Amino acid sequence: MSDWSVEIENGEFSKFYLSLPEYERVVITSAITQILSKEGIGICASEWGKPLGGGLYEFRIGKSLNAISQHAQKMSHIRTEPQAHIQVLIRIFCTFYGDKMIVIHHGYDKKRDPSHKRQQREIAKARKIHERWKRS
């Protein structure tokens, strides 16, 4: 089975990603490469994904680097990293289209502000980005 290709649609996700501490960036990169790009839209049949309607999806990262690597069955050098057991709570908003293409629109750190109001605000922002992408 071939991997899905991943594309960052705009500067919003990059700005979010670069604002995070290094460990969270490593977890996100690992989750995207080891889970999202392998399973694609299949994430929605598990705890990793949730359809939000209108072609927008939420990739839910709520595990440590060790747990992500274990899920992907690649427990090589990861075990020796001192922080690799720390759990994160990241949400990435994306869409799936064409021949196994994933477009990442936006993300946020739910651990920093787990409120329902914040979550709805971030989903609304992702919807706007997604709608703009669909029109382009």
Give an overview of the whole structure.
- This protein has one domain: 2-Layer Sandwich (YaeB-like fold).
- It has 136 residues and is an alpha+beta fold.
- 40% of the residues lie in helices and 24% in strands.
- Helix 2 runs parallel beside helix 3 (65-71).
- The protein has a five-stranded mixed β-sheet.
- The relative contact order is 0.20.
- Tell me roughly what share of residues is in helical segments: 25-40%
CATH class categorisation: Alpha Beta
Strand residue percentage:
15-25%
Going by CATH, what is the homologous superfamily?
RelE-like
Q: Figure out the total of helices.
A: 4
Number of domains: 1
- The dominant shape is globular
Core attributes:
136 residues, globular, YaeB-like fold
Quick description:
With 136 residues, the chain is α+β, with helices and mostly antiparallel strands.
Strands, helices and their partners?
Blueprint lengths: L4 E4 L2 H9 L2 H18 L9 E5 L2 E6 L3 H7 L18 E8 L3 E9 L6 H20 L1
Parallel strand pairs: 1-5
Antiparallel strand pairs: 2-3, 3-4, 4-5
